[in-house]
Design a protein that fits this description.
Blueprint: E1 2-6, H1 13-23, E2 30-35, E3 39-42, E4 48-53, E5 61-65, H2 71-74, H3 78-90, E6 93-96, H4 100-106, E7 114-115, H5 122-128, E8 132-133, E9 139-142, E10 145-148, H6 153-166, H7 168-177
Parallel strand pairs: 1-2, 1-5, 2-4, 5-6, 6-10, 7-8
Antiparallel strand pairs: 3-4, 9-10
Helix pairs in contact: 1-6, 4-5, 6-7
Length: 192
C-alpha cells in the first residue's frame, strides 16, 4: 500500500504523525509526503516537512488528509480544492483526520457519504459542505472513505484501516508495538 499524506500550512502535527506511526508499521508500506506545490510545509506546532509536488496517485494508494487550523482558509481556496478532488479521484482510499473532512466536504467529495469530524469544530465542518454527518463516532468508514473525529482519533481510525485491510490481529499487534490502547469501536466516541 502506498500512503500519500497531503500537507498544507498549519496542519495539526498529531493528525499526521499518529497515522504515520501506524501505517509505518505495515509491511511493505510506502509513506509519501505531498503538497499541491511541493516544498517545505510547516505544521501548526512548527514542524517543517519537505514535501513532493502532488501528482496523480499510483494504484493501491491511500490519500491521507490531516486537519488543523490550516483547513479554515483552504475551504475557500478553489485551486486547493480542485487539486484535492483530482487526488481523491486517483486514490483507492481517502482518509481524513479531524477537520480534514471539512476539506473533503468543501471539495464536494463527501456528498451522500457518511462522515465525522472533530467535535470541537463539528458545527463549522457541517456548514462547509454536504455529507451524511455523524456526530457520535470515533471514526466512520463508508466505501473507500474513512473519516475520524479529533486529533488522536486518527490513530484509532488508522488501526481500523489496518484491521480492514490486513486483519484484526495485525491491527492489534501494531497497537501493541506502539504501546497504544486502541479504541477499536468506531461508535465509542467519549467526546461526542
Amino acid at each position: 500500500m502506498n500512503f500519500y499524506f497531503l500537507l498544507f500550512e498549519r496542519f495539526e502535527t498529531l493528525d499526521l504523525f499518529g497515522p504515520v506511526e501506524i501505517f509505518g508499521r505495515v509491511a511493505n508500506a510506502s509513506l509519501n509526503y505531498i503538497s499541491l506545490n511541493g516544498g517545505v510545509i510547516t505544521s501548526a506546532q512548527g514542524t517543517r516537512i519537505l514535501t513532493q509536488k502532488a501528482a496523480s496517485l499510483p494504484a493501491n494508494s491511500a490519500l491521507v488528509i490531516p486537519g488543523g487550523r490550516g483547513t479554515r482558509p483552504l475551504v475557500n481556496d478553489k485551486e486547493f480544492l480542485d487539486g484535492l478532488a483530482a487526488l481523491c479521484d486517483s486514490a483507492d482510499y481517502v482518509l481524513s483526520i479531524c477537520t480534514g473532512s471539512a476539506l473533503l466536504a468543501a471539495a464536494g467529495i463527501l456528498y451522500e457519504i457518511k462522515a465525522t469530524s472533530n467535535k470541537n469544530a463539528f458545527d463549522w465542518v457541517k456548514g462547509v459542505g454536504d455529507a451524511v454527518w455523524i456526530r457520535k463516532a470515533r471514526w466512520v468508514h463508508d466505501g473507500r472513505f474513512y473519516t475520524s473525529s479529533g486529533v488522536s482519533a486518527g490513530i484509532d481510525m488508522a488501526l481500523g484501516f489496518v484491521a480492514d485491510h490486513y486483519g484484526r490481529d495485525a491491527a492489534k499487534e501494531n497497537a501493541r508495538q506502539a504501546e497504544y490502547v486502541w479504541n477499536d469501536d468506531p461508535e465509542n466516541d467519549p467526546f461526542a
